[in-house]
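Much of our argument rests on the idea that a fold can be written as discrete symbols. Part of our work consisted of pairing the sequence of a single chain with a tokenised description of its backbone. No coordinates are needed to read the tokens, only the vocabulary itself. The record that follows shows the chain in one-letter code together with its fold in token form.
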Amino acid sequence: MTTSVNRNSLWAYANPKKFLQTSERVLPFFWITSGLCLVVGLIWGFFFTPDDFRQGSTVKIIYLHVPSALMAINAWFMMLVASLIWIVRRHHVSALAARAAAPVGVAMTLIALVTGAIWGQPMWGTWWAWDPRLTSFLILFLFYLGYIALWEAIENPDTAADLTSVLCLVGSVFAILSRYAVNFWNQGLHQGASLSLDKEENVADVFWVPLLVCIAGFVLLFVALVLYRTGTEIRARRIKALLARERVGA
């Protein structure tokens, strides 16, 4: 009975073999559903929603900007959880999952910054402003780059995992600021949340529903990319280990 529980527990997926077997089974689902959500959501949003009475057609960039910004922040939080698991339990799969998520997170952050500039230029009259949320988001982007660079700079994988985990803890401050900067500081050009429990702050339903579809597509795509990249990291580590053994044997 105890063995069965252990095999079916969440920690069983810390075994690289079980993780690879499971990810290979579920990946097709995530690829297909993310593709469907993105195609439906983006076509619906860009071609079948009206122009906003204030922002005109510019508002439609919300279908790229909001999902990418949400995933940029939540990707870092996922890396934080994986890093904490590594620090506490020393599961290599969690450290590799955090490493795998970083390039996806930096891509999401870059998309959010670029689309935000495109959206902001006609609304604010400038491509960039040192607004609290924009500034903290830019710093988060730099933390992503530093995290990736630190992994590449350190040869010992366990040492790299330790140091990048610490960096992830520090960078989480800016992830929180990016998410809640509008609540912390009243001043700034950036608008309030597009999605909120307060109905008065939400976008209109005609924009809200396709936006939710796009967000679902981005979430599913993120999961698919992280699973795929984590599997790649596991296989790459195995290859390095085999090559190291061959060198020792030679």
The mean pLDDT is 84. Helices lie at 2-8, 16-47, 62-89, 92-124, 132-153, 157-184, 205-249.
